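dude i think i finally got it to work??
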Amino acid sequence: MAVSPRELLHAALHRQPTARTPWVPYVGCHGGRLIGRSAEEYLRSAELIAYGVATAAQRYRADGVPVVFDLQIEAEALGCELAWSEENPPAVISHPLARGTQLADLAVPTAESGRLPIVLDAIRQARRQVGDEVSLFGLITGPFTLALHLLGPDIFMQMFDQPEQIQALMQFTQEVGRAVAALYIEAGCDVIAVVDPMTSQISPGHFEEFVTAPARAIFADLRQRGVPGCFFVCGDAQRNLGKMAECGPEAVFVDEQIDLVAMGEIARQHNVAFGGNIPLTTVMLFGSQDDNRRAARACLDQGGATGFILAPGCDIPYAVPPENLAAIAEVVHGEHSGVVAAGASTAVEVELPDYATLGHVQVDIFTLDSAACAPCQYMVAAVEKILPEFADKVQWNELKLKSPETVALMGAVGVTSIPSIAIDGEVAFSSLIPELRVLRDAVRDKLSAKSLI
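look at this
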């Protein structure tokens, strides 16, 4: 009896042997690209979302696909203001709890809140269009990332100074997650992914103190409903991967900064499935079809035959060429099983400035794109908050990993994780949003070394 793509995926999520590795392209705003619409148009229309999901599922021969990859849905419903983009999901630009709203004044969203009616309608329409053959992922904003959206960067200081208030906030965001997950399941999603990128920015101790209990509650609720739950994280979350697996998900999904072989060992130790981690920009966005075939083959070899799901490192960039994703599908479906020879190098040469002779301190923030990546957004916000204190003695720049030149510059500076901050060409903070006082001290040290203070 033939196994459907959905059945194949669910077998892998339950760590059962499968005839081939399932494939889940994280099509978010890229669905808009496929149907010729901007990200804003796409994410405001149930009809466009459903059409984009169905188009992606068919074109990329997916076993599963997210309906909406937008970690601002719940935040918007709870009063956060958003800035919209042509090629990215919206970004949170205001934090209700930081501007006077009390936690007691916030109510768990309902099916009528914010854009939730659009998302729920999109799920129902997508289910009708793709049928039962393909698994639909409902993505909810993880409890810590949602807490950060509501409170803003002050959360990092309050975790030390006012932990009981953060505990109360996390209890609330857990309730939001469970409620939104239930709505998505009722509408037709058969996998729920808890996407919590900001957990890569905290220590294992803080993860245990603030994230473990709410995450366990969400996954326990999903298990009771009979729906697989997955924990998604991006960034260098190596220190917290074991903690994530202990929260009770069916699978943990990681990005390109995590070694898949090491992730596989952690997954087997905790009896969970795992997924990832084709590089988003260097391969999917800038690479050739053969580059994508090579990356897919490498991931398949590293992930192994049981309990592994092939996926990108995170939300597929809007402008990724569709033929690159189709090339990955060829490898997944056994149509291109040979070894692909490496092509000619397309590396770009860059020349670093002589930082010692600059009349200022240069702060460079390496990001995927602060308009689309929550850890990137809040790292940029930290820099923006402290730099006015130094007037024109410090200059800063966000270097988005969206061009070959930025990729080359990362290599020249020694950046290995995104997001990172380099000060005068030296990596100061790697995949970790610094406390403001620590960031200030690092900048002052450089200013002092140049006799600028």
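The domain at 355-449 is CATH 3.40.30.10 (Glutaredoxin).
im so relieved honestly
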